[in-house]
Each structure stands twice: as structure tokens, then as C-alpha cells.
Amino acid sequence: MADIKTLDQGAKILQNVDVGSIVTGLALGIADAQERLDTNSVKQITRLSEVEVGGKSLLELGFQPAFYAFEYADVSASINLKMTVQEELEIDFSLEYDSTKKKGYTDVSIQEVENNYQEEKYKEFKSSRKYWTTASNEHTLKVNQSTVNTSKETGSIDRLEETAENLSSDSEVQRVDSKIIETKDIVSTDNTNEVKTHNYNGFGMLSLLDYYKEDTGIIKFKNYTNVSIKIKGTNAASTILLDKSNLADNLNVIVNSTFKFGLKDNDALNIYFDFSKHHALDFSYNKGTSPNNTESLKDKLRALAFIMIHDTDVTIKIAGHTDSVSGDKFNEDLGLKRANTIKNYLITLGVNESQIIEINSEGELNAKTNVGDNQNNPDYRKAVIDIDTNGNEYIFVEGGDFSNTQSVAIVADWSITNSGIVQKYAKTTVNITKKFIIESGSDASLNETVKSLSEIKTKLDNSTKFYSQISGDVVYLLRKDAKIEYTIFSNNNEETTIEDKSSNAQNSTNNNDTLNIHKVINSKYFAKSDLKSIKDPKVSAWSGSLDVRYARQFGVSVEGNASVSARMISVPPPTGLENYIQSLTGNTTSGS
Questions:
Q1: Where are the alpha helices (DSSP H) in 328-424?
Q2: Closest Cα to residue 271, out of 251, 258, 250, 289?
Q3: Which of 143, 281, 315, 530 stands the most exposed, by the fewest C-beta atoms within 10 Å?
Q4: DSSP E strands, 88-183
Q5: pLDDT digits (tens, 9 = 90+) for 190-228
Q6: What three-state secondary structure class fits 22?
Q7: Domain ranges of the chain
Q8: By the 8 A CB rule, do 399 and 288 touch?
Q9: Which CATH architecture has domain 212-425?
């Protein structure tokens, strides 16, 4: 009945149901019961005639079998037939791996994979397939009908994102997500290390925020009563004084600095993301409502981080947003990923996590409300930082009109001061270096001195263990042996396929830890599983799949009741049996 898809089709079947045969079946059941009673009586006669006591059978001694008959029998039936067209929901998950060839994948990872599949949640897609590999490997893959190559980029972020973009080039693919599922963290191994280290979502994150290219100052205004703050000057003619009654006018006093930034209560910063992306900030991304990422965003985030580091009065909330392509749940998670990316960027710069008081996702809510569903609109692909300054206002300034030595002293006691300098730094001398001492696992370590983020990147690249990339004031690094998972989502295909079409030359250079896993999960249309192992021994440490197809089923339910009412009474033995007993005993038996 798998091809029955409408109620009209099913109704034609129900019209042919023979209700009379159901009643006949009940009546025949009564007849069958009478036959079984008669058979039982005959068996009693046989047994009584065969068993002897004192040379006589039990039958001769007066034992008689019991006989029964139905005095009357009523048959009644009340039947209600219903037909439904329904979707078959059936799932059978399988995961195979050779315990001798796990190649770096731990039992914990295996269990996590199985749990994740059992909890798959994106019901808005018809199908999805997961592809796993090692970061350093390069493959040629066939995605549905399209042939694509994995990335050859050496930048840590670009390598993941280009592969994801290539996988999404097939017209039947709506989304591709990537994540690092197994790696080793970056750790600072010496208290003299001067490079800030952090780890998030498989990336090591490094910053060198306290290497100052210019004299730098942070000015705070609790209010503007009797404001008078000298930020530069050795005499009256050269003095630059902040003495205005509001933030905007004081900012206008500063005209020659490399960068200046004013911050007040309830300000917000928008950080935009390209379609589906969330791993890192892209300061070259020029879409989204102005001011976008290209308009001094890196400097603004650095200024915000400095202000928060030196004044715990300032707290922030971060909300992630998406456009309205795809469904609610996918976009809710994507928005949260974007918000957490911003959070961890700021933490890497040195912001105390306790000052980031809320992380949440608005998903596609704003986009769907304002521009409708399924709209690819870059204005809504963002994370928004909402800033609470506790009523204070700030100016962050670098170089030019600010002098570390000529400005007034840092305020010592803010309980008795309304305005002044929170913190200031002198430009770092050119020949000053910073210690860079880190480890990752037992096979990768660096003990170097550096003067810039670009030098940090060079040291990482020279180690041959990492891919690295600078984004803003952070270096993102990725171990070359990290395990990467790509998930392809389709809203068109009930089956999404990936095949490994790598050349011999590609396979010969790929890391031995390479791994391709074909897996399919579909939370909307479940059907029978189909296990398929990848044959190439280089890539078959584990294999498994859960192929999902759309299956409609015709279902019939029978409701109601059927009943039989019958009364059974004892009846005398047949006359022939009476005569037979008399012939054996010579006695006459009177009947009742």
C-alpha cells in the first residue's frame, strides 16, 4: 500500500470490505466450539472403556462421560472502519569502526558521535550527510551530481570555510556547517609567556594586545561637572584640554590622533557575517548596514576591550542574528554560534568573562518579521553587542593628540573624582620583544620572542604543525591533524550523497589519519537504514550511514466490538451408548 497517498484512493479499498464475512467467522467459531466439546466427550468414552479395575472397565463400573450442547447462540458485531494516510517514521542508526584502526579517534569521540546522531534536531531539512576528514588532507569529492575539491588554503579559517563553500556549490545543497571535532588545545607553559592564549571550538586563539603602536589613553566621565583633563602639551600654546560638557564635543577636541572612540551607555556595535559563517570575525566583509566590518570595527573592539579590562563598571550582552533562509532551529543555533564567536574574541583580547553577562540568539526572528521568510539578507546576519557603562562615558585615544608623558596622571580614587584618565600606555619601543611560549599536546611546542601578530603567525607556520591566520587582533591557529566534520543539509533531496573521487596522487600525500564517514540523518522523514562502508582502506577506519527516505504509508484502523452470547447445558448420553453399557453389564440404566 506504499503508493496509497490520498483518502479517495483509500476509500475505494474500504468500500470492498466484506462485513458479512466477519459475522460468518464469528458463527463458525461457535460451531467449532461445539465440535471440540463433542470430541472431548468421545475421548472420555475411550478412556473409560480402556481403564479396568477388578477385571471391569470404568465404563462397566458406572462411570459416564459428560455431554454438553449449546442451547442457543447469539452473534452480534459493531464495526467502525477508518483509513488514514500517514508517514512512516522509522530509524535504525548504525556506526561501525575497526578498534585496531581508530587512528586517533577515542572511544569518547565515538560515543559522542552516536549521541549526536540520536539527538539530531534540524527537522526543517529533508536530509543531511556528514563528511569527516583530517584538516591537512585534500580530497576530490562528488556531492550529489557536482564534483568539488577540498581547500588548499593555509589559513586556519579560510581552509575550513572554503571547503564548506565548495561543498555547498551543488544546487541541491542549502547549507553546509563545519566544526572541529577533535584536536589538542594550545596552552601557555610558562608564567613568563606574554602572548595571551585562549581556546574555543577547536581553534587556538592568541593576542598581543599590550604591544602599543602609539601612546594610548582611556578617559572616563562620570559626569561633566568641572571637566578639565589635559591629554597633551608642555605649555599653554600646545596644551590639548578636554573641558567640554558632553562626549561629542570632547571627541571633537581630538583632531590628529591615529584612532579615537567614544563610548556611552546603551551604545551598540554590529558585527556582520557572510552567509552560514560563524567561526571568526571577517574584518574585510563589507556587507551589512553601515557602519559595517570595514569601518574601523577592529579598532572599536580593541577600544572596547581596553575599556572593559580597566573598568569593571562596563558590562555587555551579545545577541546573534541570522537572515531568514532555512528554518527556526538551524538559525537559532547559528545565531548563538555567532554571539559566542564575538564573546571569545573579546576574551582572547583580555576581557573578563564575568563582564559578558548574557549570550543569546534571536535567530531569524528580526529578519522574518521585517523582510519575510526565506530572504538572504546580509543586514540581518550579525551579532550585536549591547553595552552597559553604568551611566559613565569614555574616550579611547591612540597617538597624535594624546601623550603618555604630557597628559595628567591616572586617577587614583574614583570615589572622589568625576572625570579623568583611567589608564594610559607609552608607545612600545621598536626593539622590545615579547616572550611566546606555548605547547599543544606532546608533539608541538614553541619558545620564541615576537614583536607582532605577523611574527606569531610566521613562527606557527614554520613549526609545520599548524595552519594560522590573523583576524583583527587575534591569531587563529588550527592543528593540521585536527579532525573536521562537515555537515551538508538539503531541503530538496531526500537522499544526499558524497563519494570520494580522490586521485592516487592525492591519497598518497594525505595524512594516515584521514577519515571519511558517510552518514545521513533526517529528522523529518525517517525510513529504513542502509549501511554503506567506504572501501578505501585509507579512509575506512570507521564507516556507517543512515540513509533516510520519505515513506508514506496507508493505515487502516478497526474500531468497535464483536460479541458472542451462548448458553451451554448438560445433555444425556446418546441412546446407543446406553444400550452398549447394558450389553456389558446386563443391567438396565434409567435415564433422568
A1: 328-349, 365-371
A2: 289
A3: 530
A4: 96-97, 127-134, 140-143, 146-149, 175-182
A5: 889 999 999 999 999 999 988 898 999 999 999 999 999
A6: helix
A7: 7-86+557-585, 89-183+481-550, 212-425
A8: no
A9: 2-Layer Sandwich (3.30)
